[in-house]
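Q: Structure for this?
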Amino acid sequence: MTGLGTAVPGVAHPADLLEPGPPAGRDDPAARLTGRGMRYRDRATRLALCAGRDALAAAGLPAGPERAIDGAEIGVVTSTNLGNVDTVCETVTRIAEETYLGTSPMSLPATASNVVASWVAISYGLRGANLTLCNGPTSGLDAVHWARLLITAGRVRAVLVVGVEPVNPPVRHLAGDERALLDGAAALVVESAASARDRGVPALAAIGPYARKGSCPQAIAEVRHGLEAPIGLWCVPEHRMPIAPPGLDDAVTCDLSATLGGCSGALGVLQSVAAASWLGAGGTGMALTTAGAGEQADDDAAAALILSPVGR
Amino acid sequence: MDLFVTGMGAVASIGRSPGEIFDSLCAGRSGLAELRGFDRTRFRARNAYEIDDRPAPGADLPLRASRWLEQAVADALRDAGLPADLSGVPVLIGTTLRELRSVELSWRDGVPFDLGDLHFGTTLRRRFDAANTYTVANACSASLYALALGADLIELGAADTVVVAGVDTITESTYGLLDRCYPEAPDQVRPFDRGRRGMLQGEGAAAIVLSGRAGGRRHALLRGVAVNCDAYHPSAPDSASIARAIREAHARAGVRPRDIDLILLHGTGTPLNDEAEAEAVGDVFAGLPTVPYMTAIKSMTGHTAGASGLHSLVAAVSSLRSGVIPPVVGLTDPAEEAARLRLVRGGAAHAPLGVAQINSFGFGGLNAVAVVEKVA
């Protein structure tokens, strides 16, 4: 990982995600993007564009003709579960009230769940493989995993990963309770070690083993199999396990669902950004990120991903 | 490494299995019917290509897409001679609209819906004990994009068998917005016809088992899949970018344009798609003494969105095996750009076929192109 970005109220820098309490301040990160082009963008798209722009800039890959990697060789992987339910729900309400004539034609692209990845690609000129994962609570970690696979498979040289979830009445309706929810986004850039070296940019963290399994203990056991180094940081899933798996007692825990609210498809990307900040700041040991429980009604599986320090 | 299609399952408005669907396609039987699922008084458009499985007209149910997906996956596994147990098999599901129809019913009409069913892993966990599942929401190119990912998993040695699927149902929001966007309501999907007015949606699912293992049943060899993104416009296509995807698919497959015998076009019957696709195909295949046979099955299935790429691939595999190519239904007065194409019209064509190309494009400028080869 060579670049990080966040668009979370009260979070000025990725490292702020590691603070133990909820962020202070309710600034709207989407206000950082302005202009006529923003008028018809949905909330999730605007948040994603903010975080994505920062991550590309931090990786030394801002949009522009001088970019060190051609846009055709940069992919996008987006994770979101609820990103476009506002458009879908508002449209059917309009249809019931005013027939199809009451709908806004400009909202057609946002009925497809890939609208965020589409605008990220257009806005930053990224023409490589473009994926949208809407994969439940594990979706953000799955996105980091697929970014790595797209590079390993030789389809692209670098990938911008974005996790985003908005808050609005349809999202509240689907969440079904009053708990706090994240209205924000996180982004990171993945490229091969050789690519980072060739470009002369420092890598913040290396992406290690990943698994998506039927339960969180199974996923953790799978990614830790054969690993010698201790886990120094554990980013826990939203539904915490009643008993911590062995070997994690001494790890610093990071519970982003507690500090930011339920993060759904953005959680894994936020965790990866937090963990990369922690590793980049000299954290000792490896970082374990975990999302999903696999044993709840809305939760079909659990994912785990190891991030490790680079060159130390 | 050789990757084989070893099992297939599919459901659509025109059939409940790949065989039924292919028979309908070759006979020119369309699934076009009056809209059944929604209150017709709210729309100008009248028709769609729905699966007729609701209890009564206008009475909609949640989770229809999930049930079609279950059926297509179960049929593909049975066809491949595999047990209905996916605990060790990665599954990639391409979709445009996920279970958003269920979200609409929940939000506006108070129909109970569990958020966990918005992605398809939950259904697949319940039915097949699958945990390594990925809902890839890549618009109307989704199932061929998912195929590219599945092929990568096998080629990287991360799996020896994967299930790749596609599924979509019609949502009221997309049906209404398409109605709002077109100058006139389309009466049917007429790819490459001068009288086309736009696309109408269809419903269905398709699933294949893809395997790098030796032995067992083999329907076809997957030669390669290319994917890219125009990064140009949220809904309008870019013909140069489509042409790049086709050329990359050929390069990955190790074929030249003259090796392609059949093209399953994306063919949505919207002027923007048809013109861009015809231009791209015309460029790539320019200079050949004869261009490949071409067809567009959305003229009979409707636009099955995230499932449409795999619906076309399953039809292509059936064509390779049988030497029969379904016609483009509703094509009576070819549009100008169709002059560069060799569209099958007026009835099925018969020809020996070796290699087929399948085009699949989606909103957001997503392009996916696959190449499959007949096996003995």
